[in-house]
Amino acid sequence: MKKSRKLTALLLAGAMTLALASCGxxxxxxxxSGGQSQPNQGSASSSKQDPPDPADDANLTPTQKIIKEAExxxxxxxxxxxxxxxxxxxxxxxxxxxxxxxxLPLFIDYLKTIDPSYxxxxxxxxxxxxxxxDQLTADSLKDTGxxxxxxxxDGNQIESKMVQTGILDTFVPKEWAxxxxxxxxxYEGYLALQTLNKVxxxxxxxSKSYDNCWDFVAEGEHGLYMDIDSEIVGxxxxxMLTRDDYAAWLKEAFNALSAGEQxxxxxxxxxxESEAAxxxxxxxxxxSLAWIKLWVESYNAQTDDGPICNTLVxxxxxxxxxxLVYSKLRSVEESSSVxxxxxxxxxxxxxxxxxxxxxxxxxxxxxxxxxLPWTACAFIAYMTETVDGFSAWGKDMGGYSSNPTxxxxxxxxxxxxxxxxxxxxxxxxxxxxxxxxYEWWTTNGKLVLEDPAYCASVSFTVGSWIEMLTKYSA
Length: 474
Known about the structure:
alpha/beta, ten-stranded mixed β-sheet, two-stranded parallel sheet, 12 strands, 13% strand
């Protein structure tokens, strides 16, 4: 459990902001790897920047005391607490994913298996335009809040606006921790429901192919991408590219280009050397800044990933590409002009070099002034410890449960690794829909994973530099 007192947290947050203003952060934690345990989906968060744990329970808020107790309880034990607390009451949740609304009825049905008389009304809100942080901040000013819990993305703002200020508390379910070979006390970081990936895809109806991540920022290319000011996790992706390990990936991919291709990029890389030094980046920082600069100044900004997918799978979109949520392929309706077979997932192609996309998490938190903290903990445990609880998200490829047991059960139920197979089970019908899985994407697929701590540490420095770039205007 991440423990924080609001006053202390506010002071620490202010101190951190001043520190970030005066220097960059060049720390390089190990890259998250699918070969490691699943908590790496969320454990790269800023546990070392969180307010220090209180010396004893007397310093915990009422909700934090409940969380501490709840972290030693099984799902069934939590369910009984939830039934006692919320039977006949109203539960309000808020999140970046609308599917919380689908998960809550399943949770209620689960509680009814323990007590058939149980009943709870609920409302799930999904604020638009990144307003979830304002909504949670306003709600935190009440002695008892409206929202019991939240499912939220954007590790950078979660760290700086929600955790450091004591608005949100992390609850680590006992059986989730056990499945990951850890304990609530030992686990560091936020609790991730899942990691989602956005991957490079291109229309293959023409002669053009993309076999290196630098091809996406080559002369004349204009990838379809949700604007970084409308979906902030896209900006976190750019922040992450400046971390030493990911910068090394970009340099490695550059070295794999032909001499002629390198010649196009070298002036930009050279020009970024002084910028990288000023920003306190590592030895390969110039490669990161060059890629970021070329990307921001060339991508064709879109409002949502759905329309990007609809464009790319049409045979008329010859030689176009995008960086978009992988799961969008699931909803493509085949026709004479539209097909998943009209696109390639770049990283799946033999010989592809460099980053294949980026991954970010949906995190689960209990609000520190939660009106129903036991029920919030039980709901969080249900979503992270059972296949049914994760099923609202589990039906999609490209969304990976942070619980390896749930991930295995989800794959057994939905067969995402064979999502492109024909009904005979042996013939590949849609190669792009055969999800390689979390482990593959975070190793061979070179998925860039969001690290909230690192994003928060460079949001002032690298973030200000990105704001100075001139976006492409189609």
